[in-house]
Amino acid sequence: MKTVRIGSHSLAYTEVSPPHPRANVLFLSWLGGSRLGWSSIVDEIGQEYRALAPDHRDTGDSDTFSDAYTVADLADDAAAFLTALDAAPAFVVGLSLGGMVAQHLALRHPELVRGLVLVATTPGGPASTPAGERGRAALFLPAELEAGERARQALALMSEASLLERDPAAFEVAAANARRHPQSTASYKRQFRAVRAHDTSAALPSLHFPALIIHGETDELIPLPDGLRLADGISGAQLRIYPHTGHMPHIERREEFLTDLRGFLAGGLLEEHTR
């Protein structure tokens, strides 16, 4: 773990990088998660690229907060983080809340962004599709649950039902990560309120970046129509829909996710080189 000071607070982060990375890649985590959830992906992408995964403010090993904040505030944190580490421009990979932060980062600080990978996320706004029953259950698990058990139940509800049988180790990893980085009820509520206020729907046409949208066909937390709205709203965006996949494509379809991510990153660099 490393830390960097940005303004009045510090962010914790993981960095994996070869001696001569091809580009910078920033990974942004989801509601209730921390940088640890990206670890297996960061380890792989970090073999070719400078892969950076920070904890959002108020989560993981980053400084805690007591005041309310917005997704735009988290995007400004990400901008300051990239600047402080001389890691811009960067390809930005965000899942769920992380994808919302990525959108605001690209809108507010376009000079820092090289491309967007928006995973299981939404532009928000009044046209959003409500979460399904399993998705709502994952959001509102009992606060008194032990952190590891809460993570297990959340993953079971957010993912395709077959994941537990196919990859029981994923649940052990999720539980271990949650026990290392338990999130307080107050922190979760602050994040959740930020998510509820997120809306970039009217601004999507102004995002002129290479973009890859990855969404699970059976996502009950942020249903597929919201991913389709992103793909429709961002000119030239690529769309990958994973069948029989819920809200955690990087876990449920890890190899496919890595293949698509590597292909997008390499393609983005090739396009820049041939301009």
What does this structure look like?
- Residues 26-253 form the AB hydrolase-1 domain.
- This is AB hydrolase-1 domain-containing protein.
- This protein is α/β, with parallel strands linked by helices and 275 residues long.
- It has one domain (2-130, 184-274): Alpha/Beta hydrolase fold, catalytic domain (Rossmann fold), CATH 3.40.50.
- Helices cover 43% and strands 17% of the residues.
- It has 11 helices and 8 strands.
- The chain has an 8-stranded mixed β-sheet, with helices on both faces.
- α2 packs across α3 (97-108) and α5 (147-158) packs across α7.
- The longest helix has 21 residues, at 254-274.
- The N and C termini lie far apart (38 Å).
- Rounded average pLDDT: 96
Radius of gyration: 17 Å
Number of domains: 1
**H/E topology pattern:** EEEHEHEHEHHHHHEHEHH
Q: Would you identify the CATH H-level superfamily?
A: Alpha/Beta hydrolase fold, catalytic domain
The neighbouring-strand order within the major sheet is 1-2-4-3-5-6-7-8
CATH architectural name: 3-Layer(aba) Sandwich
Largest sheet: 8 strands, mixed
Looking at CATH, which topology would you report? Rossmann fold
Structural class: alpha/beta
Distinct helical segment count: 11
Distance linking N and C termini: 38 Å
Number of strands: 8
Strand content: 15-25%
CATH class: Alpha Beta
Poorly predicted spans? none
Helix content: 40-55%
Shape: globular
GO molecular function, one term: triacylglycerol lipase activity
Pfam family, one: Abhydrolase_1
Protein name: AB hydrolase-1 domain-containing protein
Domain AB hydrolase-1: 26-253
